């Protein structure tokens, strides 16, 4: 029954998105889109991808006010994406892993760089993104910031495309959309088509205003664990909390055959094999696994219950890494019961 309701929710969301695209001034279509996104995400938190979250915020704004009134709010959200994304990358983990790899990929056609130099240059990536955020904040420099944002997204499409790092189609599409957004919001001059239509009642606006204000401020608490990483725009920021799962060789046959290829032996002879949830999610669902230890722990619990793993599953639970040293607090759980005890420390969320 839940699967049927879930499929109906997704179908309803697609119809609402089609209606909103066809009639962009229809507040009813945008309201239906917002409701559809909330329902789909509530049914499966894995759908809370950054682009879905951003679309939800925009849909709520467009459902309660015309474009001219919504535009400043949309601009604030767009600037916050660049600001928090940059702040999340000014981080030991980023410059020594993802950032270094990006710099190496850019430098490869020129012969490459040694790792220490690539690590130092990796700081330029979040620094440039922070400059863009600051330029977009100030009206006199807004068009320059918009042009630089477009250039950044074009460069990212080149870097992340199949000809270089080969990231998912969704990432490339989102960068394309963000480049178009930068043109519309910050480079293109506002025309007469943006004139204010009829008034919208305040009662319909204040809950959305409060929700958007929360979305703008709450990412400040992300590293303390009060707000999730992706709604905090921690994009390509490997400091996030996470869980490494292992399944014992004796229970491997209990998993679906299609999943068994994602269980890899570390060849240390102890019988425990790494369960690669990240690759499984990318291949089976075309999106990264939600990067939050809480969600991944609850997902592991569901897998343990469904396939009766009991004592044949264990986990290393890793907290948020320190910004300057990269160190993490870690805890360990052996078996389904210990996973459940760890799960009781969280007060919200389920897979």
TrEMBL record:
InterPro entries: Methylamine_util_MauE (IPR009908). One of its GO terms (cellular component) is membrane. Residues 76-160 form the Methylamine utilisation protein MauE domain. It is found in: Membrane. It is a multi-pass membrane protein. Keywords: Membrane, Transmembrane, Transmembrane helix. Pfam families: MauE. The keyword Transmembrane applies. This is Methylamine utilisation protein MauE domain-containing protein. It comes from Roseiconus nitratireducens.
């Amino acid at each position: 029954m839940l699967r049927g309701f879930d499929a109906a929710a997704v179908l309803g969301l697609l119809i609402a998105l089609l209606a909103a695209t066809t009639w962009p001034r229809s507040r009813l279509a945008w309201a239906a889109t917002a409701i559809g996104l909330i329902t789909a995400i509530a049914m499966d938190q894995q759908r809370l991808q950054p682009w879905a979250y951003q679309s939800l915020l925009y849909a709520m704004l467009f459902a309660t006010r015309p474009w001219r009134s919504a535009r400043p709010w949309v601009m604030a959200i767009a600037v916050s994406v660049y600001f928090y994304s940059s702040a999340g990358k000014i981080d030991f983990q980023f410059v020594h892993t993802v950032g270094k790899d990006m710099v190496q990929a850019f430098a490869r056609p020129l012969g490459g760089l040694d790792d220490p130099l690539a690590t130092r240059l990796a700081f330029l990536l979040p620094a440039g993104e922070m400059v863009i955020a600051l330029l977009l904040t100030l009206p006199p420099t807004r068009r320059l910031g918009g042009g630089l944002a477009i250039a950044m997204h074009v460069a990212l499409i080149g870097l992340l495309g199949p000809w270089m790092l080969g990231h998912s189609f969704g990432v490339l599409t989102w960068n394309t959309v963000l480049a178009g957004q930068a043109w519309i919001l910050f480079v293109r001059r506002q025309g007469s088509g943006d004139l204010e239509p009829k008034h919208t009642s305040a009662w319909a606006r204040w809950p959305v205003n409060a929700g958007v204000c929360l979305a703008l401020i709450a990412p400040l608490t992300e590293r303390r664990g009060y707000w999730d990483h992706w709604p905090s725009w921690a994009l390509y920021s490997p400091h996030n909390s996470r869980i490494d799962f292992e399944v014992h060789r004796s229970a491997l046959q209990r998993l679906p055959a299609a999943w068994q290829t994602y269980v890899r032996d570390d060849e240390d002879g102890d019988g425990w094999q790494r369960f690669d949830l990240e690759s499984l999610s990318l291949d089976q669902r075309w999106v990264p696994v939600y990067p939050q230890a809480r969600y991944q722990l609850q997902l592991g619990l569901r897998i343990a219950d469904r396939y009766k793993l009991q004592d044949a599953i264990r986990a290393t639970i890793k907290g948020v890494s320190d910004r300057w040293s990269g160190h993490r607090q870690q805890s360990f759980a052996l078996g389904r019961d210990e996973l459940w005890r760890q799960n009781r420390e969280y007060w919200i969320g389920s897979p």
